[in-house]
Amino acid sequence: MYTRKLHPGSDFPAIDVTRSDGETLTLGKPQGEHDWQLIIVYRGKHCPICTKFLNKLESYRERFSAQGVDLVAVSADSQQQLTEHMESLDLNFPLACGLSLEQMQTLGLFISEPRSEKETDHDFPEPAFFVLNAEGKVQIEEVANAPFVRPDLDTLVGGIEFIRKPDNHYPIRGTKHYE
């Protein structure tokens, strides 16, 4: 089975998920005064690598915010699993849950089934991230098939800082298509 992929420069689909406070959040719509958004897809509460990465991401939140980038992280966990996971996280950006199988497929994510009931009780996405620009287009993306692949946050935020400088005229990369 092959997955569909979002292509660089394509419009990011508006996907509704549930925030930790129970409110609806639309992925692809930056919050507050931000005009860009970084969407982190994580495996869920069961993944200690995800927990570590999300806590590390918090330490970069201000640098992303200074570049006009809103952060949000989402999983396929239930509201209860998200609430339990929040106990091991110290974040000041929204966490959301309820990513459906159809939504995971729309985003072109790799999907795994739990190895046992001890891991989790549902199929879940492998890690991915999408940086959306002010036009809602995919500026940068990475889709992984295992929990061991994560972006280097210093390099990522540094790259966004470079891209956002108007004098650099840096285009969306990876848009060349061959027939």
Give a quick precis of the structure.
This protein has 179 residues and is α+β, with helices and mostly antiparallel strands. It has helices at residues 48-58, 61-66, 79-86, 101-106, 153-164; strands at 15-19, 24-27, 36-41, 69-74, 95-97, 111-112, 124-125, 128-132, 138-143.
Overview of this protein structure:
The chain has a single domain, classed as Glutaredoxin (3-Layer(aba) Sandwich). It is 24% helix and 22% strand. The strands form 2 sheets. Strands 2-1-5-4-3-8-9 form a 7-stranded mixed beta sheet. The protein has a two-stranded antiparallel ribbon with strand order 6-7. Strand 1 and strand 2 form a beta hairpin. The longest helix has 12 residues. 31% of the residues are buried.
Oligomer: single chain
Determine the mean pLDDT. 94
Helix content: 10-25%
Decide which structural class fits the backbone: alpha+beta
| Beta-strand residue fraction | 15-25%
GO molecular function: antioxidant activity; oxidoreductase activity
Organism: Cobetia crustatorum
Protein name: Redoxin domain-containing protein
InterPro entries: AhpC/TSA, Thioredoxin-like_sf, Thioredoxin_domain
Task: Chart the SSEs and their pairings.
Layout: E1 15-19, E2 24-27, E3 36-41, H1 48-58, H2 61-66, E4 69-74, H3 79-86, E5 95-97, H4 101-106, E6 111-112, E7 124-125, E8 128-132, E9 138-143, H5 153-164
Parallel strand pairs: 3-4, 4-5
Antiparallel strand pairs: 1-2, 1-5, 3-8, 6-7, 8-9
